[in-house]
Specification:
Elements: E1 7-12, H1 18-27, E2 31-36, H2 40-46, E3 50-55, E4 81-84, H3 86-94, E5 98-100, E6 106-114, E7 127-134, E8 137-140, E9 145-150, E10 158-161, E11 166-169, H4 181-192, H5 201-215, E12 221-224, H6 229-242, E13 246-252, H7 260-270, E14 276-279, H8 281-288, H9 294-316, E15 321-323, H10 328-333, E16 360-362, H11 370-379, H12 384-387, H13 407-426, E17 435-449, E18 452-465, E19 473-474, H14 479-492, E20 496-501
Parallel strand pairs: 1-2, 1-3, 3-4, 4-11, 12-13, 12-15, 13-14, 15-16, 18-20
Antiparallel strand pairs: 5-8, 6-7, 6-9, 9-10, 10-11, 17-18, 18-19
This protein binds xanthosine-5'-monophosphate.
Xanthosine-5'-monophosphate is lined by residues 391, 393-395, 399, 435, 469, 506, 510-512.
């Protein structure tokens, strides 16, 4: 991969949009990796094909005691650089300009006036709407820099170096609210860095297969499959390389959706993965009894899974390798800048397995984003049920049952979610939303059935739209469809009195209620 494609490095300063920048670059067909600002010089020697650097935003002010500062030697490499927000201010400061604190705060959409027709702004309108999110701003440019654009409150909203290919923008070209943001990134990648747009679906497949071949040197491989996109694509790719040495295991934890075990087994068998089915539902439900705390429930599900997985691997092993569908955001979260003290987080829950497991890991998707994996699944010819399946959390319905997980609430949650999915499919909306399900807690309300009053559960329907699960909006689905879902839930599911619709977005709510 490193030799085949031009690479742009997104240098991370802890900004909330770092992944978004990286994804935008890849959408423009240029391969991109995220590297912490602390490791930039090592990374430059690791990748022979780096064509440019993009400095991300960050949560700190350049004047904070722990403000991250890039090794100034990068400025002598001759590589094109684009600084965004914090990156823009840091460049100005390091070259001898002046940044002021908090006087000209700008949050949200604002009008950018382009004053200098620069290559970075090629094909942009003279006035264009951009997204700002900053407290500090560049007050005085360093020597040898010129201003390219301004907004009402920011004098130097963009600048460039007079000789070097160094640029800064105070706004965020990576967010969709910056109307012509994609053009700015495109200009930087194609015109300034002169990158070739070679990164495409077949590239992801080849690089993933290369990653497996690089790791694998014979022996048995075990892979836990759930029927979800990531684990299925992982197993499918691994199978291509290791053949019969792969054992796929499908653990039924009793927290699956209606008919899910049967459907998953059928689908995975149809694509040649022939999973070993292990029904551990009783163990999981037993372990969850009496537990009401959401985090505790997640922990119990994780630990029970590990125990069962361990037993299976002892029985069918020995296995030298564990294959899992870790994605790029999971990997990068474990090593990125995360606030003032540059804390290095360790990622413990990738694939739900603990770090002390003694297998070698095969993670063919670890350089990819979810949308890339989805495209890849399509290209590999995997069934639509997998390509288009909504995400489902590892802890399953335990994440959708408030309070103790018991058979009654599991039944309600399962049946109600099946109705939600079925009605959305019928209305042709299933593929247009990110997730759609029902959740239930312990609260009960009065209901009248004939002449009898009884207390029944409240079921909450949740349907959200999202691009990546990081943020989400509640879906504005038609009232008549909500009504149909509600009527079916109270008619068809015993002990349900009332149906509500969740109209909270993320943030502040998370997608899963537990
Ligand atoms: P939240 O609830 O954090 O969820 O807004 C964001 C996305 O992640 C999924 N999710 C999980 N996926 N294991 C998973 O594999 C988990 O423990 C887990 N928790 C949440 C959730 O369904 C949503 O798409």
């Amino acid at each position: 991969m490193e030799r085949e494609h031009d690479i742009v490095i997104v240098v991370d300063f802890g900004g909330q949009y770092t992944h978004l920048i990286s994804r935008r670059v890849r959408e423009l067909k240029v391969y991109c990796e995220i590297v912490s600002y602390e490791h930039i010089m090592e990374s430059l020697s690791r990748f022979p094909n780096v064509k440019g650097l993009i400095f991300s935003g960050g949560p700190l002010s350049v004047y904070d005691v722990n403000a991250p500062m890039i090794d100034k030697r990068v400025y002598d490499t001759g590589l094109p650089i684009l600084g965004i927000c914090y990156g823009h201010q840091m460049i100005a400061l390091q070259f001898g300009g002046k940044v002021i604190r908090g006087e000209a705060r700008e949050y949200g959409k604002t009008k950018l006036v382009i004053e200098d027709k620069n290559i970075l702004f090629d094909q942009l309108s003279k006035e264009t709407i951009v997204w700002m999110s900053h407290g500090d701003s560049v007050l005085k440019l360093p020597p040898n820099f010129k201003s390219l654009a301004r907004t009402e409150n920011t004098l130097h909203a963009a600048f460039s170096h007079n000789i070097k290919k160094i640029y800064g923008v105070q706004f965020h070209p990576e967010v969709v609210h910056t109307v012509e943001g994609k053009k700015v990134l495109k200009n930087f990648l194609y015109k300034v860095c002169e990158c070739r747009p070679t990164w495409r679906t077949s590239s992801y497949i080849n690089s993933s297969l290369d990653e497996i071949r690089r790791r694998y040197s014979g022996g048995k491989v075990i892979c836990a499959v759930s029927g979800g996109l990531d684990s299925t694509v992982t197993a499918f790719l691994v199978k291509k390389v290791v053949g019969e040495n792969l054992l796929c295991v499908f653990v039924d934890n009793g927290l699956l959706r209606k008919g899910e075990a049967e459907t998953v087994l059928k689908t995975l068998t149809s694509i040649g993965l022939n999973p070993l089915y292990v029904d551990a539902s009783k163990q999981f439900i037993e372990k969850l009894r009496g537990i009401t705390d959401p985090e505790e429930k997640r922990k119990v599900v994780g630990e029970t899974f590990v125990k069962i997985f361990d037993e299976i691997s002892k029985k069918h092993g020995p296995f030298k390798y564990l294959a899992q569908g870790t994605l790029y955001p999971d990997v990068i979260e474990s090593a990125r800048v995360s606030g003032p003290a540059s804390i290095i987080k360790t990622h413990h829950n990738v694939g739900g397995l603990p770090p002390n497991i003694s297998y070698e890991l095969i993670e063919p998707l670890k350089f990819l984003y979810k949308d890339e994996v989805r495209k890849m699944a399509k290209k590999l010819g995997l069934p639509e049920t997998i390509v288009k399946r909504h995400p489902f959390p590892g802890p399953g319905l335990a994440a959708r049952i408030i309070g103790e997980v018991n058979e009654e609430k599991l039944y309600i949650c399962r049946e109600a979610s099946a109705i939600v999915e079925e009605e959305l499919r019928r209305a042709g909306l299933y593929d247009r939303v990110w997730q759609a399900f029902a959740f239930v807690g312990d609260d009960k309300v009065v209901s009248v059935l004939g002449d009898t009053r009884y207390y029944g559960y409240i079921v909450t329907v949740k349907i959200v739209t999202s691009k990546d699960g990081m943020t989400a909006d509640w879906a504005k689905i038609p009232y008549h469809l909500l009504e149909k879902i509600s009527v079916r839930i109270t008619n068809e599911i015993r002990n349900v009195s009332s149906v509500s619709y969740c109209v909270s977005s993320k943030p502040p709510a998370t997608i899963e209620p537990q």
